[in-house]
Structures are given as structure tokens and as C-alpha cells.
Write a structure and sequence with these properties.
mainly alpha
């Protein structure tokens, strides 16, 4: 089979470099998170994460190897499969930490709520690419994308996993705003959302309300609900300008920092590498997000453009929520830091999403005049 030379010529090495850099940062931080302590640390997690990166790289290659227009054609089948997996989780899923989020496949477990993000992005891009227009979408045209989003959203909330459900809703909202909503419809939606806040609050579980109240005042329960945020802020602040050094973070090594290999891995980075290291990590993500938006801008195909916007906003929202969470600027909702936090499903989803961005970028010549 002949390979079009233009695919190599247009390959986005800059985007690939940023992805590999983010993954490298993740491996360094994870090694410290699982090896710096004096207690019973799970050193095997580092080897597992290496394997997940290898699998994720394979998914990334697969994602950009096929013309992305094929995803538009078969996106509904992928969406149906992922939705079915979410239903299966509620029936036979594995319970960890009080939540039923994982499917046990023997040697490994997968988290369908991570994978469904890509399915929703593809489905929304598929729908919006066919109806987008300059004067904006009306309310009746938003019913289908609302249904596409609400079905997995409710299934994820049922697990419960409020953080992932929130990210899914934010991705859908960002994509919808990008394709433009008619002004009158937008005002109506904003008003309806404001009126729904009391109802949403009444539907939250007790621990979810507690997290929000703790976010507003962490010192109200410093040894309970506020413990995570307080210890994370101590770790970040103690890093000062240049940090304490690799494997020398005391909050990490003495096990004061909870979930240091997943949700709070940025705190490990900030403690050991200080403000300089933290800013460097933020710059990598900033450049990654900017590059994703550039890919969307340069695409001349509506589906490719909207899909690239969706993947980029997925990365952007998770970076924003995770770092805001560990700094005490947002409630603790259990959102991973893309490419960095430990977790197979998260790594595979992000690497596959990166593959979609590379796909759109390297095939932009197909639509150039």
C-alpha cells in the first residue's frame, strides 16, 4: 500500500513533541510519587504506567493512521459501544472508593467514563458539521446534541463520578458555543441554567455538597473534608521558587499528600520543582492547547475543525480543573491531569485524542485549494 508523501510532509512534529514532553513530565512525577515515601508505596504503579503509555502510543498511532473522515462515518457505532459499556458498569462494575466506575477485565480494569469523552466529541462534531451556519443554532437544533450529551452524563453521575460528568458537560458546552448559538436562544439557556442551580444543589449527594462547602472554607474541617486541599496547598507553597529537589518533597515522602499519583500529582511536581517547575509544566500545557486550536483553525473541513476544538477543550478543561483543584481554587472533584496523572483509561483517552489532533493536522492538505 502506497503512503501519500504529503502525510509525512504535513505531520505535526511540534504537537508530537509537546505530547511526549507532557508524558515525560508525568513519568518523572509518578516515579517520585510512588518511590519517595518511607511507607508501603506501590512501586509497581510506575511499571504499569509505562505499559499504559505504550498502549496509549499504539492508540495514538491508530487514531492518526486512518483518514479522520472515517470517524465521522462510524462515530455513532463508537458512541453506542461506549454508552453500552457505561450501562454495563452500573450492572457489573467494580466498586472502588464507594464509586462503581471500572469494568474488571481480569489483568486490567477500564473506565468507560473516560473513553466516552472521545465518543461524544466525535458525535457532536458529526452533528454540528452538517448544520453549522453563521447566524447561529436555534433551540430545536440543540435538542439532538443535548441528548447525545445527557445520556452518558446521567450514567456517569449515577456511578457516581461528578468530576468526569462535569468535564463531559463542559466539553459539549464549549463545542456548542464554538459553532455559535442564536443570541435569543443563548440568553434563554443561561437564564434556565441559573434557575436550575437550586435544583441541582438539592440533587447532590451529601459528600458532594461537603466538597463544595469545604472548597469555600477548607478550615471548617481540616482533618476531614478539608484535609486534601490543605495538604496540597502546603506542598505547593513549600516548594517556593526552585523546589526541594527530586524525591525530596516532604509532603509526598511522609504521606501527608493524598492521592499523590493521581489527582494531586501536580502538588508533587510543585513541591519538588518549585514555582519554576510548575510554570514550565503550565507552559507545556499552554503550548499544547494553543497548538490544538491552531490545528482547528487551519483545518478547512467543518468536521475536522469541530472535532479538533472538542479534543483541545477536553485537554484544556481537565488542566484547568485539576490544577485549580489542587491549588484550592476549585472543589475537589477527582479530575486527572492529562498525560501526567496515573491511570490507564485516562492515558489511553488522552493519547487517542492527541492522535485525532495529529490526524486533522496531517490531512489538512486534502482540503486546501
Amino acid at each position: 500500500m502506497m503512503i501519500d508523501r504529503r502525510l509525512v510532509e504535513y505531520f505535526d512534529w511540534w504537537m508530537l513533541s509537546l505530547i511526549m514532553m507532557a508524558a515525560g513530565i508525568g513519568l518523572v512525577a509518578l516515579y517520585s510519587a510512588v518511590n519517595a515515601g518511607i511507607g508501603d508505596h506501590q512501586t509497581g504503579l510506575f511499571a504499569k504506567q509505562m505499559a499504559w503509555y505504550g498502549i496509549g502510543a499504539a492508540f495514538m498511532v491508530a487514531a492518526f493512521s486512518f483518514n479522520y473522515k472515517s470517524y465521522e462515518q462510524f462515530g455513532h457505532l463508537f458512541y453506542a459501544l461506549c454508552t453500552g459499556l457505561l450501562v454495563l458498569v452500573l450492572v457489573v462494575g467494580k466498586i472502588v472508593g464507594g464509586s462503581k466506575r471500572w469494568l474488571d477485565l481480569g489483568a486490567v480494569s477500564i473506565q468507560p467514563s473516560e473513553i466516552i469523552k472521545l465518543a461524544v466529541i466525535i458525535m457532536l462534531a458529526r452533528y454540528y458539521a452538517r448544520i453549522v451556519r453563521t447566524d447561529g443554532l436555534q433551540l430545536r437544533e440543540l435538542l439532538t446534541p443535548a441528548l447525545i450529551t445527557v445520556i452518558p452524563f446521567l450514567l456517569i453521575v449515577r456511578q457516581p463520578d461528578l468530576g468526569t460528568a462535569l468535564v463531559l458537560a463542559l466539553i459539549a458546552g464549549a463545542m456548542t458555543l464554538y459553532v455559535k448559538i442564536e443570541r435569543r436562544t443563548l440568553i434563554g439557556l443561561i437564564g434556565s441554567g441559573a434557575l436550575a442551580v437550586p435544583l441541582v444543589w438539592s440533587l447532590l449527594k451529601g459528600y458532594q455538597k461537603q466538597r463544595i462547602l469545604t472548597f469555600l472554607n477548607p478550615d471548617r474541617d481540616p482533618l476531614g473534608a478539608g484535609y486534601h486541599i490543605i495538604q496540597s496547598k502546603i506542598a505547593i507553597g513549600s516548594g517556593m521558587l526552585t523546589g526541594k529537589g527530586f524525591l525530596k518533597g516532604t509532603q509526598n515522602s511522609l504521606d501527608f499528600l493524598p492521592e499523590q499519583h493521581t489527582d494531586f500529582i501536580f502538588s508533587v511536581l510543585a513541591e519538588e520543582w518549585g514555582l519554576v517547575g510548575a510554570v514550565f509544566v503550565l507552559m507545556v500545557f499552554f503550548l499544547l492547547i494553543i497548538r490544538g486550536l491552531q490545528i482547528a483553525h487551519h483545518s478547512r473541513d467543518p468536521f475536522g475543525t469541530i472535532m479538533a476544538v472538542g479534543v483541545t477543550t477536553m485537554i484544556a478543561w481537565q488542566v484547568f480543573i485539576n490544577i485549580g483543584m489542587v491549588m484550592g481554587l476549585m472543589p475537589v472533584v477527582g479530575v486527572t491531569l492529562p498525560f501526567v496523572s496515573y491511570g490507564g483509561s485516562s492515558v489511553i483517552t488522552m493519547m487517542a485524542g492527541a492522535g485525532l489532533l495529529l490526524n486533522v493536522s496531517m490531512r489538512r492538505f486534502m482540503f486546501e485549494k
